[in-house]
């Protein structure tokens, strides 16, 4: 394999990958043009995504094969549960999201499918498999947010959703995720690499469905 393991999986996840990172929903976020009702439904569902995502980070922490990886993952859990969580609370206030939609909203099919994949991988997946799903979730977000223009919209709900995902810290986190996935994935046999690829493709497809639902 000449390309890295993560690049190899990304190349085999087209056309979904490109459709996610260039999704019209993201262009609309760049210009503060997502109508409130759509931004509200997207963020309400994404907060439920986040719950399962944090569980998946916890599984990565538990299943990592070395302390250096655990330390890096712990740092990301700290960011997601502080800066990102606070963003959601402020956005919910700005968008007048009622309490029940913050804690127990009716879930869209795309949210259910993504949560199922993450909880299932958290429970049963190997460390490379857990890293695969985390990498898709973070790398796709880095890639779409990296396409943002220099000037962000005035609305913090839109602007911070971009800046949370294109900061140098977030890029370093995605670079690390990919390098750890390349490290442990490169040592897998063909059958286990194929299992990671299937998860990568499934997660990429679900990212697309998630955006489509709110567009
Ligand atoms: C659906 C989805 N995918 C990825 C991310 C980035 N953690 C997110 N917030 N939401």
TrEMBL record:
BP GO terms, sorted: thiamine biosynthetic process; thiamine diphosphate biosynthetic process
EC numbers, comma separated: 3.5.99.2
Family matches, as SUPFAM superfamilies: Heme oxygenase-like (SSF48613)
Pathway note: Cofactor biosynthesis; thiamine diphosphate biosynthesis
Top-rank lineage group of the source organism: Bacteria
Ranges where the Thiaminase-2/PQQC domain occurs: 13-213
Catalytic activity: 4-amino-5-aminomethyl-2-methylpyrimidine + H2O = 4-amino-5-hydroxymethyl-2-methylpyrimidine + NH4(+); thiamine + H2O = 5-(2-hydroxyethyl)-4-methylthiazole + 4-amino-5-hydroxymethyl-2-methylpyrimidine + H(+)
Keyword Hydrolase applies: yes
Hydrolase recorded as keyword: yes
Binding locations of substrate: 46, 84, 138
Enzyme class of the recorded protein, top EC level: hydrolase
GO cellular component terms listed in the entry, alphabetical order: cytosol
Alphabetized UniProt keyword annotations: Hydrolase, Thiamine biosynthesis
Active site (record annotation): 207
A GO term, aspect molecular function: thiaminase activity
Record function comment: Catalyzes an amino-pyrimidine hydrolysis reaction at the C5' of the pyrimidine moiety of thiamine compounds, a reaction that is part of a thiamine salvage pathway. Thus, catalyzes the conversion of 4-amino-5-aminomethyl-2-methylpyrimidine to 4-amino-5-hydroxymethyl-2-methylpyrimidine (HMP).
Assigned protein family: Belongs to the TenA family.
Identification of the protein by name: Aminopyrimidine aminohydrolase
Lineage: Bacteria, Bacillati, Actinomycetota, Actinomycetes, Pseudonocardiales
């Amino acid at each position: 394999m000449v390309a890295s393991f993560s690049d190899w999986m990304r190349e085999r996840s087209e056309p979904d990958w490109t459709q996610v990172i260039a999704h019209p929903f993201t262009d609309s976020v760049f210009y503060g043009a997502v109508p409130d009702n759509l931004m509200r439904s997207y963020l309400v569902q994404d907060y439920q995504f986040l719950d399962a995502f944090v569980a998946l980070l916890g599984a990565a922490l538990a299943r990592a094969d070395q302390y250096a990886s655990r330390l890096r993952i712990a740092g990301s859990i700290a960011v997601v549960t502080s800066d990102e969580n606070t963003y959601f609370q402020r956005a919910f206030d700005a968008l007048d999201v009622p309490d029940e939609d913050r804690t127990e909203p009716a879930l869209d099919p795309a949210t259910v499918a993504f949560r199922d994949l993450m909880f299932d991988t958290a429970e049963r997946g190997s460390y490379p498999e857990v890293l695969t799903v985390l990498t898709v979730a973070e790398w796709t977000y880095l890639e779409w947010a990296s396409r943002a223009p220099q000037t962000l919209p005035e609305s913090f709900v839109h602007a911070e959703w971009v800046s949370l995902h294109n900061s140098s810290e977030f890029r370093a986190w995605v670079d690390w995720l990919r390098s750890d996935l390349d490290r442990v994935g490169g040592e897998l046999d063909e059958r286990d690499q194929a299992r990671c690829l299937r998860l990568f493709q499934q997660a990429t497809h679900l990212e697309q469905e998630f955006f489509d639902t709110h567009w």
